[in-house]
Amino acid sequence: MTALTTASRSPNVDSKILSKVIKYCKKHVQTNPKPANSGAAADAKSSTSTADAAPAEDLKSFDAEFVKVDQATIFDLILAANYLNIKGLLDLTCQTVADMIKDKTPEKIRKIFNIKNDFTPEEKAEIRKENQWAFE
């Protein structure tokens, strides 16, 4: 039984997300086919190194467009990639979320992800005191 067969029978991945996962996998398989044997792979690699640049750029473009979705879809894709053990998709979607919070203040991150600040003023002061180095 394949991961996609398992996903199609699982409540963990809905059909909308599964179709996106399949689209991602098809594109990556078409762009990065596995060679039949390692000897042929070495020969092919040396003769097609410049030809590989175009598909790599195409794949980067595809990935950039693929993750231009709403937050809920990104989070569902992360869960599906983890559940289905698709490392490339998991890395891509996690990096997308990391980029969303990069260089943001805690307040901006809370706003982006709609997170309520439930620290009391005393707790905030204690955290600031314990982590003073981060505020310098």
From TrEMBL:
Residues 87-134 form the SKP1 component dimerisation domain. Residues 11-30 form the SKP1 component POZ domain. InterPro entries: SKP1 (IPR016897), SKP1-like (IPR001232), SKP1-like_dim_sf (IPR036296), SKP1/BTB/POZ_sf (IPR011333), Skp1_comp_dimer (IPR016072), Skp1_comp_POZ (IPR016073). Signal peptide: none annotated. Residues 30-55 are annotated as: Disordered. Residues 38-55 have a biased composition (Low complexity). Pfam families: Skp1, Skp1_POZ. Keywords: Ubl conjugation pathway. GO terms for biological process: jasmonic acid mediated signaling pathway; protein ubiquitination; ubiquitin-dependent protein catabolic process. Pathway: Protein modification; protein ubiquitination. It comes from the Eukaryota. Belongs to the SKP1 family. Part of a SCF (SKP1-cullin-F-box) protein ligase complex. Involved in ubiquitination and subsequent proteasomal degradation of target proteins. Together with CUL1, RBX1 and a F-box protein, it forms a SCF E3 ubiquitin ligase complex. The functional specificity of this complex depends on the type of F-box protein. In the SCF complex, it serves as an adapter that links the F-box protein to CUL1. This is SKP1-like protein. It comes from Triticum urartu.
